[in-house]
Amino acid sequence: MKTIITSSDRSFLNISELRKYGGLFKYLSLRDVFVRYKQTWLGFGWSVIRPLINIVIFGGLSYLVDRSQNFKERFVMVSAGIVFWQLLSTTLNDVSNSLTSNANILTKVYFPKLILPLSNILVCVIDFLIAFALYLLVFFWFKGLPPWQIIFLPLVIFYGLVFCFSIGLIIATASVKYRDVKFILPFLIQILFYASPVFLSSTFVLGLNIPAWLKMLYQLNPLVFILNAFKYCFFGQFESFDPLYIGLSFVITLLVLFFAIRYFLNFEKSFADYI
Amino acid sequence: MSDTIIKVENVSKKYEIFHQKKERSDSLVGALTGGIKSIFDRGSVQKSKEDFWALKDINFEIKKGDRVGVIGRNGAGKSTLLKILSRIVKPTTGRIEFEGRMASLLEVGTGFHGDLSGRENIYLNGSILGMTKREIDARFDEIVDFAEVEKFLDTPVKKYSSGMYVRLAFAVAANLEPDILVVDEVLAVGDAQFQRKCIGKMEDVSNKEGRTILFVSHNMGAVQNLCNKGLFLQNGRSINYGNISEVIKEYLEVGNTISSSVFTFESQANYGKSKAYFSRIEFRDEAGNLCSDFPVGENIHIHMQFICSSKMEGTVLGFGILSSTELPIVTTWTNPENFKEGLNEVVFTFDKIQLVPGIYKLAVGISRGNESVDFNSNLVFFNISDILKMPEAARLVNTSSGVLLNQFPYKIIS
User: Which CATH superfamily is domain B61-256 in?
Assistant: First the structure.
């Protein structure tokens, strides 16, 4: 096997090489899983407690702001949003930090760098599955069996992961050179929290007395569709279903994904020079 | 030739250095305003940036099974070259081709995680270095054996002693099976016995399995033992590439005759980390002037400055002199002394030095009881020159005459 090193900037998405590094992907993923709650007394209990605290705070708040449903209904609804949001936001956050937090490996060894952001997803998913299992029990307790729409759930989760991974990949690449991103990220996540139907339902937001362009912007956020779709799987009802915006959100997600990978590959070879 | 395994053509690497006035913008706003400013203010921005060629037009070919020692002073571009070869940074110009699998060992324990156990770290580190799970499984016992950590396999490595940590890290790397192994100065860590073990391992690998090795070290003894070819870099340029002994000889001549008479230790890896550490060593002649080049028969005054972080009692300061081929010649110590907190200075006098002209190296150390507090054997050099003051007969010496210069008294008895 012959390898050629040149001064060209671009690298290409080399799937067969990525697969050759499957072992590295596995061990990096496992490392993150093993290390996440090391030296904590609660261990993986935290993957339940973190969303639980959010559920209590925002479930209560949401009921105060919007009383269109009774408390029980609202609690089950908001919990669904928050459990899923926890997955989306930790994925976004961890993927964004995946390059700078692994600088020591990046500057010492060659491997396809895409492995780093990818390997961060597993630990987020495991966190999510624990909280999600608990949510299923809660749902069953209050509402019984979920409707047939539940079969769409894996697709919705996958779509959400793709979108958050893409945004995270852009941020991760930018943060190699510009550490400002580290400071912007928490605000971005906070803004997305309010700009997506996590605890404020989209019916409520669209019913607010705000300028039309703001509502348009809100609907262009792919997370609005993603979170509503997640709730659809559990409640069988689609909130503010608008095929135009759903189509647009698909297009936006694809564009973001495409741009993220292009941007990443254009800079991949220079990471070690800047990090 | 078909047995060429690595071919390097015109490889250069440029870094941009930014001077104090206008720094490279590490923030978005900085980049934006910098961009705007540069439209109006082209002249001054250009002035603040300077191109630095860490490597310039490097060409060489390595044949299968060669063991190449890359030598040169600090900043010569050795590590940059290895980083380019191992595809961590890209060259600014040029092209490299190599055959087969390359593994690079620029640091021991890349990706080790303190919270993971020894066992887990073996798999993690192995996979980072490019091994598959099956290869690690097959080598697992050998790795554990080499590292001598059987008992602690399930202990988090953050609880390991630094020696155990390094041993484990090297053991993983040493059991790699690439076609080409690239090794940076990783042996600088660990004690002498461990270093020998590692070099032995690399020799084994290379001799028995015909593996190609690129090895960077400041330890000329190690390079000479391990390598059959040498690449001498200076200021990013390749000065010589060929037979290892010739390259080392040239390195010692070119690299060190211009050596200075003052050696400071700030840049050393372990500087300031021990209870007492060397800060500066100066060579002075009989008149007290700084000097790096001593005529045979003169007195050498070696001024050693070291810093104690607290009062040190019963402490011994010592040094040894080694020839350019790492042959130990003499060692001397102080008696156990008490040194004050802060800067101490001790001067040793080497009376009427009788060594064959050439370059000599100083290994300096501080110890207390059985504990080595600070040690450095790779930094301090001095020259013996000027053959004129030697007795007539001694002018016949050359490097094969040994290192001691002496004319024994003799009588013609019949």
Answer: P-loop containing nucleotide triphosphate hydrolases (3.40.50.300)
